[in-house]
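Wait, mind explaining this?

_____
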Amino acid sequence: MVTINPITAPGVGFNPGKQRAIKGDNMAKLWDYEDYVKCLSHQNDLVRRWAFGAIENRYPNRYTDEVSKLIRDKVEHLACAAPKFLAKHDAVQHAPAILESFKNGQGYVPGNCAIALGHMSYEPALDVMLEQFSQTKSSDTFVGILSYFGNIRHGFCREALKSAIVHIKDEFVQGAAVTNLL
């Protein structure tokens, strides 16, 4: 008598009650878009990061509002990547939350938020950006603000960029100012 193990038998897969082909294009996906979206709110940092990466890489043209929950994520990578994703998809309805993250964020988060707000052409952030332009001590935030100014194209922004070119000695920051002035 021959015994067939239902877990390792060809064509059965890991679910003995469910027969399906496992060759080529007929292979069923383990995860679909909705599964990744659900995982964006998972309690585990690594799962959220994995799900966001999958959405960003496998579904670059699909948008989900669920990403907005990552704007204030405790994982810096997600808090930086979420505003970029939202800006790419013109989700301006989330700009106020991104502005709050700019004001309260740490590390690389404020600079990335400023860049995202600039890509969204979110002018209500102009006063905050002008204030932080002269106060920030972070070069990353400063470069993000320069990028914001370059995208807004307001008279105050042009003047701030010209001022940065004249007064800043760091060549990298000067280059960022020049690039955004053009």
